């Protein structure tokens, strides 16, 4: 009996130690992240994540709001840091991120990363089929004549993402992807390691190329693509 009591005490002590260092169990982080999404962080109800991203992390294609569900937690945490520091500017996200603690930013990222990826938000027939095909070519092999490497070199086959650093593009709204590439092309979105080369790549893409890759990635069936390359069972 004393042995069991000792083990229980040791386990409790270890749990406290883990919590103090910030390396809490994943389920605790997810639960805390949901509370942040509901507005329980320093951002308050007006800046609650769910108001734009919902609790499921689905995209809002019409508003160019990205899908967060199933995205790399590390990547989302990095972006929240950049918003908080002012390195990445956005009139909505910057004040929200800066109002959160570092732990709250990490918890919110863990919560949305744990959500199930919803279906894509662009109809497959939408857009010029030839343009979508051009986007698929750029994703798979790039454009050597313009010095553009294949998107999949960093973002994985069909843009399914390569955690922890490279985000999933598959299933993101076309307008959101096009907007981010345009901001990089104009120098209005800075590059952060290991994404510094996105500025250079975007500047080598024509406006038509940007629309092509945006439409292509928006049309990718995310779960289907993940299963095809063995990421999902």
Topology:
Blueprint lengths: L1 H20 L4 H15 L9 H4 L19 H13 L7 H7 L2 H12 L15 H13 L10 H4 L18 H13 L10 H7 L3 H13 L2 H7 L5
Helix pairs in contact: 2-6, 4-5, 4-6, 7-11, 9-10, 9-11
Subcellular location: Periplasm
InterPro entries: Cyt_c-like_dom, Cyt_c-like_dom_sf, Cytochrome_c4-like, Cytochrome_c_Oxidase_Subunit
Protein name: C-type cytochrome
Mean pLDDT: 84
Total number of strands? 0
CATH superfamily of the largest domain: Cytochrome c-like domain
The CATH level-2 architecture of the largest domain is identified as: Orthogonal Bundle
Number of helical runs?
12
Biggest beta sheet attributes: none
Amino- and carboxy-terminal Cα gap: 43 Å
Parts with pLDDT < 50 across at least 5 consecutive residues:
1-22, 229-233
Could you tell me the radius of gyration in angstroms? 20 Å
SSE arrangement, N to C: HHHHHHHHHHHH
**Tell me, what is the CATH class of the largest domain?**
Mainly Alpha
Strand content: under 5%
- How many domains, as an integer? 2
Oligomer: single chain
What does this structure look like?
About 55% of the residues lie in helices and about 0% in strands. With about 230 residues, it is mainly α. It has two domains: about 1-110, Cytochrome Bc1 Complex, Chain D, domain 2 (Orthogonal Bundle); about 130-230, Cytochrome Bc1 Complex, Chain D, domain 2 (Orthogonal Bundle), CATH 1.10.760. It is found in: Periplasm.
Task: Compose a concise summary of this entry.
With 233 residues, the protein is mainly α. The protein has helices spanning 2-21, 26-40, 50-53, 73-85, 93-99, 102-113, 129-141, 152-155, 174-186, 197-203, 207-219, 222-228. 37% of the residues are buried.
């Amino acid at each position: 009996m004393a042995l069991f009591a000792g083990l229980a005490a040791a386990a409790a002590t270890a749990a406290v130690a883990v919590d103090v260092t910030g390396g809490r169990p994943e389920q605790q982080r997810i639960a805390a992240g949901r509370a942040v999404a509901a507005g329980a962080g320093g951002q308050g109800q007006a800046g609650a994540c769910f108001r734009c991203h919902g609790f499921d992390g689905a995209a809002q294609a019409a508003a160019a709001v990205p899908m967060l569900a199933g995205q790399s937690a590390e990547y989302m945490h990095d972006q929240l840091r950049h918003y908080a520091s002012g390195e990445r500017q956005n009139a909505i996200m910057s004040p929200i991120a800066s109002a959160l603690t570092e732990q709250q930013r990490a918890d919110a990222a863990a919560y949305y990363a744990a959500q199930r990826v919803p279906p894509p938000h662009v109809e497959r027939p939408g857009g010029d089929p030839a343009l979508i095909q051009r986007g698929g070519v750029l994703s798979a092999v790039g454009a050597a004549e313009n010095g553009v490497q294949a998107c999949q070199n960093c973002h994985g086959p069909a843009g399914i993402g390569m955690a922890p650093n490279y985000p999933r593009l598959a299933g993101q709204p076309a307008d959101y992807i096009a907007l981010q590439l345009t901001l990089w092309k104009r120098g209005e979105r800075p590059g952060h390691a290991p994404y510094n080369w996105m500025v250079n790549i975007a500047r080598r893409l024509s406006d038509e190329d940007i629309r092509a890759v945006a439409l292509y990635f928006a049309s990718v069936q995310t779960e289907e693509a993940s299963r095809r390359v063995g990421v999902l069972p």
